[in-house]
Please model this.
Amino acid sequence: MKDARLQPVHLADYTPPAYLVDGVELTFRLHPTATRVRARIAFRPNPDTTDRRFFLHGEDLILLSATIDGTPVTPEVTPEGLTAEVPDAPFTWETEVEIAPEKNTALEGLYMSGGMYCTQCEAEGFRKITYYPDRPDVMAPFKVRIESDLPVLLSNGNPVGAGAGWGEWHDPWPKPAYLFALVAGDLVATSGTFTTCEGREVDLNIWVRPVDQGKADYALDSLIRSMKWDEDAYGRAYDLDVFNIVAVDDFNMGAMENKGLNIFNSRYVLASPETATDRDYENIERIIAHEYFHNWTGNRITCRDWFQLCLKEGLTVFRDQQFAGDARSHAVKRIEDVIALRSRQFREDGGPLAHPVRPESYTEINNFYTATVYEKGAEVIGMLRRLVGPEGYDKALALYFDRHDGDAATIEDWLTVFEDATGRDLSQFKRWYAQAGTPRLTVTDGFEDGTYTLHVEQETPPTSGQPEKHAQVIPLAVGLLSPNGDEVVPTTVLEVTETRQSFTFEGLAAKPVPSLLRGFSAPVILNRETSAEERAFLLAHDTDAFNKWEAGRALARDVLAAMIAESAAPAPAYLDALAAMARDEALDPAFRALALRLPGEDQMAEELHSRGHTPDPLAIHAAREQLKSAVAAHLGGLWGPLYDQMTCPGPYSPGAADAGRRALRLAALGHMARLDAGEKARAHFLQANNMTDEIGALSVLLEIGSGEEELARFERRWGDDRLVMDKWFALQTSLAAPDRAAATTAALTEHPDFTWQNPNRFRAVIGGLTMNAAGFHDPSGAGYDLVADWLIRLDGVNPQTAARMSTAFETWTRYDSDRRARMRAAMERIAAREGLSRDMGEMISRLLGAGR
Ligand code: B3K
Ligand code: ZN
Model:
């Protein structure tokens, strides 16, 4: 292991680049084991600094030649890059290097997947392609020539020439190296066109392997809608003549926003009704939009350094959430986003990996593509919009695009734009970017002489490296209901800025019922002693859809907590409220399906932990199963009619309306299975004509400990379809009974199709086990050991995906001493691996740091 690369990088140490790049010309002669890359780079000294040290990043490259203005030079080469004596004036630098894409199992830089060449450069992969100042604040236009016998040769920008065995591309928009991309393969396109509001005709192509032909229509449709939406909602038009998307089977994450050439994990492109679920369609729509939106928020305006990652990611997530809300239902979308935020980001914020939205140091930046940077980053923007209002937000964004187009910008630039556009002082608000941890809001109230008072206290618990926190600006959206259920005060946003603060409402006839944190107006944990009756009242009467759902959710949490702690029976108030809601035909089926879903086991563990208990995963699992069965029995007469009512006439459509009906129907089916031993679910499985119903019925069966025959049948039918088989694997490991989960997973790792070097398959099998809370945390420790064994193995070939999956252990400090000891031992075993990657090394030391 190379020591220089293990040193942490600090935000405070930023210095501008010594040399800037005016233009880059790259020539690739592709070969699986000996690709030649020639680079011709026009450098000039950066006038904004006196630093004249010339350093180019480069890793795992064989340097064949180097010249400056045509004269051969011999640079000093280290494992991290090279230095050379260069003129203090503009000069042309040329090198030729050799690389071996076929041997690149880390899937970073130029690599091969299913016979095609592809790239992944964010964050620091370009240095594995050629020597270059691989930092986002060095931006340049690129010309690329690809030489290969493969039929389709793609790079960024516009095509400028092609012939037998070669293709040339030119990207006129200056960009950092992390947005570089190249693809070469035997591919087929699903094509369309889009005319921008500026009158530019854009050719759109979604490229897939021939076996996947016909499965890219929804991706193309999503792309066209995204392009239109960005024009309408943000006034942002596309800026090249072509937009290409390529689906790749081996990919470390979801997708990548390379300029004009997005590269996608094939699971977020390929869809047909028979093979993709409603959730898959929704994800495709969201991720296509997300990567497209990066063209302005990320590419045209990029980040000065990687500490500013949330500048592009938080904003782009916020934009894709707005888009999905417009395309589907804002209420349902908000609920889904908050479920995801709580289960991933609150979990991160509550454990040893907690870090600010803008971290202050890192060793491996790939470890910081986190729920905090992305999802909390998006929440911070939502709060900003709430505080300055929609018009203020639009004004600020217009100024942002105007002022910073072509820049590599910072969070300071971003906030200054808001201050300049709205006249608001955001110095306290800035703490959201710097303080880690989820703020707790404790609310009490009083009523006297027609005046209602809310007393609010805020506190953010200490997190790693941040023992003390300061008060943050928290937009608290509140509405008040009269005891008869009418809304007496519509939603107003209270600005909580102090540690302790009171807010009054005058002229009320009776003590109101408060609806707090409407729309989940800030990413905080709200504590308020609330009776089951009051929650049931809000569930019935709240006009804020999010809080209506939240009232039911909070009830469910309380009921489960009492069942676990006191072996209490499920509270009738909850069961009755649920019945009323499930029957309410005025409510959107998707909303009703969400309301019927119980909080997840891991979320219950987090909840109990934050209430000061040591969670027992097995007790949580048992209580949740018991509650599901109680709901099934209590609402026994409802399920059959609801199931019959929620059919979707006509051919399959992935739209929100039908998807909502299918979700509610499957929820009904899940409850019925607890009463009829799965009879109806078996029939549903056999009759299914789309993947949502097929896999939905199969999971219902697995949840009640049945479905063996159906699993076998499913495998026979779908054995050749990689993406569908990922579902088959994941379902078994994530739904296995707690005491059998590790054994089931171990058995599946022996399956001939467990191609573990494929990240999707690895995540399906091993990731599935880590999602099975009771199974992973089985007291035997078998789950921990198995996951550790596989992370050790994967770390040797693909450190990025292995490190990301080590977050399975991030909750270890929540648990009892026996489980803690076993998890610690598993992590220490990983840490002891010879040649441990930098990625994993940093993760384990942060994970263990908390409990050492
Ligand atoms: N920007 C990429 C993520 C890159 C991850 C690098 N480890 C995808 C996205 O957020 O849109
Ligand atoms: Zn992104």
Q: What stands out?
A: Residues 122-123, 253, 255-257, 290-291, 294, 313, 366, 369 surround (3S)-3,7-diaminoheptanoic acid (ligand 1) (CB under 6 Å). The chain has a mean pLDDT of 97. The chain has 26 helices and 31 strands. The first strand starts at residue 9 and ends at 10.
